[in-house]
Amino acid sequence: MSTQIPVLAITSGEPAGIGPDLCAALPRREWPARLVVLGDREMIAARIHAVEPSLDIIDYTRDGAPREGCLEVLHVPLAMPASAGKLDPVNARYVLDVLDRAIAGCKSGEFAGMVTAPVHKGIICDAGVPFSGHTEYLAEATGTPLVVMMLVGGGLRVALATTHLPLKDVSAAITRPLLVDTLRILHKDLQARFGLAAPRILVAGLNPHAGEGGHMGSEEIEVITPVLDALRAEGMQLIGPLPADTLFVPHTLEQGDAVLAMYHDQGLPVLKHASFGGGVNVTLGLPIIRTSVDHGTALDLAGSGRADPGSLFAAVELAIAMAAGRPKV
């Protein structure tokens, strides 16, 4: 690194969404890091100056230094000019180019970590590029066999055993090897990234009432409980499987440091209710640091000046803390 403070890549995300608007808010605060926004310079300048007309933009150079009140931009060119609120599949490849540049910089040590603004999965797929989300894309790009999505906010840490799957496919996806690997990654990164020497993990069941002793499903008996028993024998502190409808009550949450939910909409609605606008998406198991906002592209707000940067600020704060080895807990 050319500076003693961490250098973070901030990807500006879908150009028709609120990502560029959120980036405009970064100079409102002083950060103990150098923040480099990745995206098309002209597009970012146009969107930013519509809401922050006095904000200066400077071009990123690797040996440069942060300047107070300025936004540092690493130029990645658009395929076609972008308009706020109007998706264009022609620019799908640009969105991935921005991600690829950030990933390459993290892998090489140029960046200490990356923070991602929202992308639009549908428009990328419409362009003919299979894309199920940042998490899966980062795993493939870094050659990581398995990563774990965890959201942090509202006093909660909620990780997922499965991510962007149709509900009908979830049961078949929850296998013993998947749960073993997921829990090991979660346990390891709670120690390494969040400073928890002996993390306590609350594990949700898949079915209502955690299967009700097999009367409402057998996955708890056949898959989840055997995995928990095996990992407890290795020394992990695992509580469950617990009924998801009562797992998130204060008395139960006090017994754990993180929750493992079996599928996306089992755990995340609770966390987003508790923290929306200030939650952070963290990808565990990667060889690099990656945090993200907890919301989507909000096309209706793009270019309006009304986008709330709270989640981006929280994601930057957490990435800085993780890069500095003093994670926010």
Automatic annotation (TrEMBL):
Free-text remark on how the cofactor is bound: Binds 1 divalent metal cation per subunit. Can use ions such as Zn(2+), Mg(2+) or Co(2+).
UniProt: a divalent metal cation binding residues: 164, 209, 264
Binding positions for substrate per the UniProt entry: 134-135, 272, 281, 290
SUPFAM superfamilies in the record: Isocitrate/Isopropylmalate dehydrogenase-like
Principal location: cytoplasm
The EC number(s) this enzyme carries: 1.1.1.262
Function of the molecule: Catalyzes the NAD(P)-dependent oxidation of 4-(phosphooxy)-L-threonine (HTP) into 2-amino-3-oxo-4-(phosphooxy)butyric acid which spontaneously decarboxylates to form 3-amino-2-oxopropyl phosphate (AHAP).
Keywords: Cobalt, Cytoplasm, Magnesium, Metal-binding, NAD, NADP, Oxidoreductase, Pyridoxine biosynthesis, Zinc
Catalytic activities: 4-(phosphooxy)-L-threonine + NAD(+) = 3-amino-2-oxopropyl phosphate + CO2 + NADH
Cofactor requirement: Zn(2+); Mg(2+); Co(2+)
Cellular component annotations (GO), alphabetically ordered: cytoplasm
Pathways involved: Cofactor biosynthesis; pyridoxine 5'-phosphate biosynthesis; pyridoxine 5'-phosphate from D-erythrose 4-phosphate: step 4/5
Family statement drawn from the similarity comment of this UniProt entry: Belongs to the PdxA family.
Organism this protein belongs to: Zoogloea oleivorans
Name recorded for this polypeptide: 4-hydroxythreonine-4-phosphate dehydrogenase
PANTHER family in the cross-refs: 4-HYDROXYTHREONINE-4-PHOSPHATE DEHYDROGENASE
Molecular function terms, GO-annotated: 4-hydroxythreonine-4-phosphate dehydrogenase activity; cobalt ion binding; magnesium ion binding; NAD binding; zinc ion binding
A Pfam family per the record: PdxA
Complex and partners: Homodimer.
Note from the entry: The active site is located at the dimer interface.
Subcellular location: Cytoplasm
Superkingdom of origin: Bacteria
GO biological process: pyridoxal phosphate biosynthetic process; pyridoxine biosynthetic process
